[in-house]
Amino acid sequence: MVRIEAPEHVVEGDEYVHTAKMMRFVDAVDAVWVVERLEQMKEAQFRCTMTGTWARFTLTPAQDETFVEMEAGIDPASWKWRLAEPFLGLQYKRWLMAVLDALPIALRQRKGEAVSR
After folding, report:
1. Which of 87, 95, 102, 116 is deepest in the core (most CB within 10 A)?
2. pLDDT 10s per residue in the chain (117 long)?
3. Which residues, in sequence order, are CB contacts of 14 under 8 Å at separation 6+?
4. What is the four-CA torsion angle of 37, 56, 46, 43, rounded to 10 degrees?
5. What are the residues whose beta carbons fall under 8 Å from the beta carbon of 17, sequence distance 6 or more?
6. For the chain, how are helix, strand and coil distributed in percent, rounded to 5?
7. 46 to each of 20, 26, 42, 60, 93, how far by Cα in Å?
8. Overall pTM > 0.90
9. Separation CA 106–CA 111 (nearest Å)
10. CB-based contact 96:103 (threshold 8 Å)
11. How far apart are CA 33 and CA 48, in angstroms?
């Protein structure tokens, strides 16, 4: 992932631009993602309008922590993405791991912003 251009607060139906470098030898690509489901602090689901890729995140309280369950897949939006689907599994795994690694950092930054206001 290179960058995400989204409003600070999104609601179901909102769109945002997700820029990613899909392969090492190909330039980064902008794709429009749609917020399909958003239940505050419980569940979020997003879908890429270009590829048909989707991601779902579910949050569950667990004692003093939060358990995050993530799923991702593709319902190919065109024949090109149907051909690419078998090769995307490793990319999904890397992407999901990067999201999980970045999540605590983003949460700490948000808490710091909230405290400093």
Report:
1. 95
2. 678 888 888 899 999 898 877 666 667 778 888 999 999 879 999 999 988 889 899 989 888 888 888 888 888 888 888 887 777 777 777 777 887 788 778 777 766 765 555
3. 6, 7, 34, 35
4. 30
5. 4, 5, 6, 30, 31, 32, 33
6. 30, 40, 30
7. 15, 24, 14, 18, 17
8. no
9. 9
10. no
11. 4
| Phi, psi (degrees; rounded to nearest 5) at 104 | -60, -35
Question: Which sign, positive or negative, has the C-alpha torsion 99, 96, 38, 41?
Answer: negative
Nearby residues of 101 by Cβ (< 8 Å), 6 or more positions away: none
Residue owning tokens 């190919």: 76
Longest CA–CA span in the chain (Å) reads: 49
Alpha-carbon distance of 29 to 45, in angstroms, equals 21
